[in-house]
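Hey, I'm writing a tutorial for new members on how sequence and structure tokens pair up, and I'd like a real worked example in the thread rather than a made-up one. If someone can provide the structure for the chain below, I'll link this post from the tutorial.
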Amino acid sequence: MSHPDPHTDFNLLPTLDVLLAEGSVARAARRLGLSASAMSRALARLREATGDPLLVRAGRGLVPTPRALALREQVARVVQEAHSVLRPEQAPDLGRLERTFVLRTSDGFAENAGPALLARIGRDAPGVRLHFLLKADKDSRGLRDGTVDLETGVVSGSMGPELRAQALFRDRFVGVVRRGHALDGKAAGLDDYLTAQHVAVYRRSTNGGKASHVDAALEALGLARKIATIVAGFSTALALARATDLVATVPERHTSALREGIHTFDLPLAVAPITVSLLWHPRAQADPAHRWLRALVLDVCGDAPQA
């Protein structure tokens, strides 16, 4: 495999391109904003680099050598390609864009936001596919190694400092019971909530000593709910609440599509709302297609102003 000469001055290529296009040292100098003597020196260096005179005297003007004629289109193409490499990428042609984006999200996001996202993509970029990947924990390795394009989640201290985040929407917790439950159709009081049996959502096999938002709010009052079972996701919690007398406590907006047909009630205690954000790795920050995807998710799902 051949290697480029380390002494080759690639800055001469644009000069050669203009010289070959103009066929005149004076006109090339004016076009490049150089003096005639500077352009003559550049031509001398080009002759030395190529081993060819390139432009030779014919009467009062200069004419290209056969080598110069052979190089003209090639040099113009190389210079144009170099310019395209060094300029910012343009907005993608959505009609021709073919790409699969992996979105790692908590359960409920695909059911809730997926239809509107897919409708917009089908209209604007039919060659794009979304792969919804279930987010079972807060490990963002996929963003770092490039196997995940975008995540949704609550920003926490465990998130790597290099990751980028954009607030998507704020959400509050609500209680959910099946139709016909003792709490169906009534405003649940704190005693009602504490007397009931609950299905809790913990993302890990154990809670690791860390209370959920609901548990933390109750603990601040010196109280605790009766947890009958623990599951890893909101959709499972809602499925159990739909089929049993268990109470599920879930984010309202994140689960709106999953809660159809069952009773939702306001919690009888103050629980801090959460902010769901988009997360991505800096490597994708300037990628036009990724920028388009982020803007699309913010437009379809967001209620926070874009940065």
